[in-house]
TrEMBL record:
Organism per entry: Clostridium fermenticellae
Gene for this chain: trxB
GO cellular component, one term: cytoplasm
Protein name in UniProt: Thioredoxin reductase
Pfam family membership, one: Pyr_redox_2
Cofactor notes: Binds 1 FAD per subunit.
Subunit structure: Homodimer.
A single GO molecular function term of this UniProt record: thioredoxin-disulfide reductase (NADPH) activity
Residue ranges of every copy of the FAD/NAD(P)-binding domain listed in the record: 5-291
Length: 307
C-alpha cells in the first residue's frame, strides 16, 4: 500500500521549503517533491538584498540550502520526481509521478513560475548559445564581452547590475522610456558606467549561425531598425505560472491559482503558496510567508476532518 502522508508539497522553491519547515515542525508527516533544483527561481539571483536580515553574502542558493537543511532537520522527506497527473477530488489526494505514486491528506502546490520568452526570431534557436534566462548560471561565460539585457522590471535591472561584474558592457533594451523596476535599483543602474540603455525598443531578431553574434532592434516610435553586436543576451520579461497540471482542478485566473488569505484553493485539502498564486507581490519573502500559512492551514484542515 502506498504510504499516506499528512502533507505533500509540490515544488522546492522558497514557498515549498518554508511550507516544509512549518509542516514538519508541527509534526505532520511531510513529503516535498521537486523535479529539478531546490530553491527554484531564487537560485537564479546572486544577491537577495531585500530579504530581511540578508545583509551580506546571502545568495538565493545559500538561503535555499539553509531552508532545505532546516526542513530536513524537522523531518521533511525530500524526493526528486516529476508529477504528471493529480487526482484531487477525493479526500485522499493521489499524485502520479514519473517514478512513483504518492498519497496525502493535504497538498500544497508551490510549483512557481518559469521565465517568459520575449518572442523574437531565433530566440529559441539560440537559447544556450548566447541567449540566457539566468545571470547567476551563465554570467561567467561572458567575461569581458558585450551583452544585452531585455526588459525593464526588477529582474532585468537587478541582473544587469550583477552582469557588469563580468561583462565589458551591458546594454539594457526596454520597450518603454521608463523602467518598471523599483527606484533604488534604477538609481544604481543609472549610476553604473558599464550600463547603457536603448529606450522604446524591442528585439526583432537574434543573429548568428551557431552562436549569438548580434540583435536586430526596432525602435517602436520611429520604426527604425538597427543592429547591436553582442555576444550575450539575457532575457528578463516576466514569468509564466507552472500550473497546467491543475487546470480544471482548482480555480485559476490567467494560469495563477486563486486562494483565500489562508492559502486555501477552491478544492478542500488543497493549498497553494508562492509565485503560483494570484497575488500582487512575488518575492522570496512573500513566498516564504505563503508557505508558512499554507502549512498551518493544512494542519488545521487535518485536525478538523476525519481520515
Ligand atoms: P515584471 O515586473 O513583469 O517586468 C517585466 C519587464 O519586461 C517589464 O519591464 C516589461 O515591460 C518587459 N516586457 C514584458 N514582456 C516583454 C516582451 N515581450 N518584450 C520586451 N519586454 C517585455 O517581471 P520581473 O522583473 O521578472 O519581476 C517579476 C516579479 O518578481 C515582480 O513582482 C518583481 O517585483 C519581483 N522581483 C523582485 C526583485 C527584487 O525585489 N530584488 C527581483 C526580481 C524580481 P513594461 O514595463 O513595458 O511592462
Amino acid at each position: 500500500m502506498v504510504h499516506l502522508y499528512d502533507c505533500i508539497i509540490i515544488g522546492g522553491g522558497p514557498a515549498g521549503l518554508s511550507a516544509a519547515i512549518y509542516a514538519s515542525r508541527s509534526r505532520m508527516d511531510t513529503l516535498l517533491i521537486e523535479r529539478a533544483k531546490y530553491g527554484g527561481q531564487a537560485t537564479t539571483t546572486d544577491e537577495l538584498e531585500n530579504y530581511p536580515g540578508s545583509i551580506e553574502n546571502c545568495t538565493g542558493t545559500s538561503l535555499s540550502q539553509r531552508m532545505k537543511k532546516q526542513a530536513e532537520d524537522f523531518g521533511t522527506i525530500f524526493v526528486k520526481d516529476e508529477i504528471t497527473e493529480v487526482d484531487l477530488d477525493s479526500k485522499i489526494k493521489v499524485l502520479k509521478g514519473k517514478d512513483s505514486e504518492y498519497r496525502a491528506k493535504t497538498i500544497i502546490i508551490a510549483t512557481g513560475a518559469n521565465p517568459r520568452l520575449s518572442g523574437f526570431k531565433n530566440e529559441k534557436e539560440l537559447r544556450g548559445r548566447g541567449i540566457s534566462y539566468c545571470a547567476t548560471c551563465d554570467a561567467d561565460f561572458f567575461t569581458d564581452l558585450d551583452i544585452a539585457v531585455v526588459g525593464g522590471g526588477d529582474s532585468a535591472i537587478t541582473e544587469a547590475i550583477y552582469l557588469t561584474k563580468f561583462a565589458e558592457h551591458v546594454t539594457v533594451i526596454h520597450r518603454r522610456d521608463e523602467l518598471r523596476a523599483v527606484k533604488s535599483l534604477q538609481e544604481k543602474a543609472f549610476a553604473n558606467k558599464k550600463i547603457s540603455f536603448i529606450w522604446n525598443s524591442t528585439v526583432e531578431e537574434a543573429v548568428g549561425d551557431e552562436i549569438l553574434e548580434g540583435l536586430i532592434i526596432k525602435n517602436k516610435l520611429t520604426g527604425e531598425k538597427s543592429r547591436l553586436d553582442v555576444n550575450g543576451c539575457f532575457v528578463f520579461v516576466g514569468y509564466t505560472p507552472i500550473s497546467e497540471l491543475f487546470e480544471n482542478k482548482v480555480s485559476m485566473d490567467k494560469g495563477y491559482i486563486v486562494t483565500d488569505e489562508d492559502m486555501k484553493t477552491s478544492t478542500p485539502g488543497v493549498f497553494a503558496a508562492g509565485d503560483i498564486r494570484k497575488k500582487s507581490l512575488r518575492q522570496v519573502i512573500t513566498a516564504a510567508a505563503d508557505g508558512a500559512i499554507a502549512a498551518t492551514t493544512a494542519e488545521k484542515y487535518i485536525s478538523e476532518n476525519e481520515f
